[in-house]
């Protein structure tokens, strides 16, 4: 199995340890990973701001980088969803269509494609999970609490395989953190208040670490935690699933 590793630009620039953990985790699981070195932004920030028509260069580069791969894996629900729903190419639309079908968020890939049932990982800490809106409502990697349906969580299932971990239940398990990409710039007061409320739920339940499949949400909450001088830390789910015994 050959899979391309798509690393979002903000992860590459600010959280390279998440990219490294993702690579190491996939290799431990027997995946042959290819990393196209010329990859850059997928175009999501422009599209979210109403400039989808300006992402043609991003789309063409993405298709060039990730054509002819069995799968494409990304440690970010929002970037994955953007590619799934918005990637197009004027001259190579068939390739773009194949890519839209073959791209997976990391935990989605591990549960749906690799069907992981056991992990050699240990993280003896109290951990609460933030379920990002893109992952939950876009990619359907967990059930929405307002639906009368059987609950499930692909990230939660994987975290339960980690030795020593104590998963903390939240009062509002699928509430938005307020980041929302460009939303946190255009509506910074609303975004900050939503983030503070979200962080308080994690803190009030005794979490030592907050984890998520989206580093962008964690980045937003990390800024609030640091301003509050809190000892609670954020850690991408790939880092926890890759934590060696």
Give the helices and strands, then pairings.
Layout: E1 2-5, H1 9-14, H2 16-28, E2 32-34, H3 44-48, H4 56-66, E3 71-74, H5 77-86, H6 93-102, E4 103-105, H7 106-113, E5 126-129, H8 133-138, H9 154-159, E6 166-168, H10 183-186, H11 188-204, E7 209-212, H12 215-227, E8 233-236, H13 237-241
Parallel strand pairs: 1-2, 1-3, 3-4, 5-6, 5-7, 7-8
Helix pairs in contact: 11-12
What would the keywords be for this entry?
245 residues; alpha/beta; Rossmann fold; 2 domains; 4-stranded parallel β-sheet; 13 helices; 47% helix; 12% strand; globular
Mind explaining what this structure looks like?
The model has no long low-confidence stretch (mean pLDDT 93). Helix 12 links the parallel strand 7 and strand 8. This protein is an alpha/beta fold. The strands form 2 sheets. A 4-stranded parallel β-sheet has the order 2-1-3-4, sandwiched between helices. Strands 6-5-7-8 form a 4-stranded parallel β-sheet. It contains 13 helices and 8 strands. The chain has 2 domains: 112 residues, Rossmann fold (3-Layer(aba) Sandwich), CATH 3.40.50; 116 residues, Rossmann fold (3-Layer(aba) Sandwich), CATH 3.40.50. The protein is globular.
